[in-house]
Design goal:
About 65% of the residues lie in helices and about 0% in strands. The chain contains 1 helix and no strands. With about 80 residues, it is mainly alpha-helical. The N and C termini lie far apart (about 120 Å). It has a domain of about 35 residues. The longest helix is centred in the N-terminal third of the chain and has 52 residues.
Amino acid sequence: MLWVLVFALIALAGLVMVVCYAVWLVHKTADLLSEVQVLGDQAGELADLLGGLGAAPATPTPPPVGGTLLSSPRRRTMSRSAT
């Protein structure tokens, strides 16, 4: 008969742990949603600030006429005259 009481106490302790974990999880979820809301507000403020700058849209630059974008410049060689 004692073993029934032991198992009932173990089950009750397990139930208390599950309830405590659920409460902790609800609090963490509320904290996370609060932080996501603050992040969204800050992103909106940043978008407003960037929108106020009025920067021109970026246009792609065409490659140079004589080659590619990664062409290397020519080297000039200096000749020494014997004195």
